[in-house]
Write a structure and sequence with these properties.
Layout (H helix, E strand, L loop, with lengths): L3 H32 L6 H38 L3 H6 L2 H8 L1 H25 L3 H17 L13 H20 L3 H14 L3 H35 L3 H6 L1 H27 L8 H27 L18 E6 L4 E7 L4 E10 L8 E12 L3 E7 L2 E2 L5 E8 L3 E11 L4 E10 L4
Helix pairs in contact: 1-2, 1-6, 1-7, 1-8, 1-9, 1-12, 2-4, 2-5, 4-5, 5-6, 7-9, 8-9, 8-12, 9-11, 11-12
Length: 432
Amino acid sequence: MGDPLAYLRAVHFAATIIAAGAVIFEVMVAAPAFAAAAGMLDPEIRRLRSRWSWLVWASLAVAAVSGAIWLVLLAADIYAAPIAEVWRDGGMWTVASETRFGQVSLARLAVAVLLAALLPMLRRSADRGLWSASAVVLAIAVLIGPAWSGHAGATPGVAGEFPLAADALHLLAAGAWLGGLPPLAMLLATAWRQKQPRWATVTAIAVQRFSLLGVISVSTLLASGIVNSWYEVGTLNNLFATSYGQLVLIKIALFAAMIALASINRFYLTPRLATAGTVRRLYHTSLAETGLGFAAVVAVGFLGAMAPASHTHHNAAIAEGAAFVHIHSNAGMADVTIMPGRVGAARATIRLWNDEFKPLAAEKLTFSLMLRAPGAGSKLIMRSPAQDQDGSWTVDGLELPQAGNWTVTIDATLVDKRRLLLDAPIVIEPEQ
């Protein structure tokens, strides 16, 4: 549990969830509640909305900074070089502009800037409808963007569409529920401190609307979580026998505890809002629910840094001196071995597998290696492998001119006419 990138991912997701959730809460929950006050609470509402704006701005800033650091660390890892060297030689821009993660990150940053600029317009405009809808759309775009840079987003064709939709819905539901808890707690704290009867209507409407939003979000989280677990954990045994599965169990336990607190809020405290002290207790349970939720986000940060249990690599025999990489997606997997894994003449062997590690039949396969070393330009080797009798594919007579981090790409047409497109880095050592 000492991987700094895992914590960075958790901070990034938490900041994104808070920023988007606060926008969704204000537009879909708080605005109708404030409208019921008919202008009687204008000074308090303005102050509360101002605090929400600062919360969104601060969260977007944290998300932007953590996202930038994430990209920098990823680039340094891809090139296996110090950050300063990768930055100086242009590798950082290559990763930002030519990888899916980088492209998604840049798009999300642009949307986040638009959202931050839109917030003052949301406050000043007499016609809030258009600006409110625009703010929600932008917030959702920032929130669900990471789904396109995950395992599902990298899977081409129909095989990736279902888990991609599940990932996006999971992020949206998490933002609407978990991200709405901090602004809800702020509203409840204001109502508790004011101790004025005119806040009773606002509180009742806001709590009821958030409760309904919570039910929808929890149902969506449960359904999308089952889909994600099916694709990423695979079997019941993996859930208990692998580190990935055990971390998923921790996340499930935290989710169950959140549901328990949410049930107390909805079925016990909400009907008793008129009773003295209930708003204070609701405020405290909302804070506890928030703490559990962001503990689950930390678990998500570590899950993203691990290979899914369903893709745990089987025991492949790797010859001494070979360069080897296992590439996986929901559509299929590949083992690529380059022997010897150093500069000079070499032979590549490719084996395709399905998600149960059974051979995956293909009609055609293209193999390519590309070197993108900072300052050294690009070198591309593309070949059409020949299929052996055992079902593997081989490329003889490869000439590897330079050591470094290469990218291996497999483009296969499967017998069922699906396309399998896989790529991953592979290290070629210097000539001995």
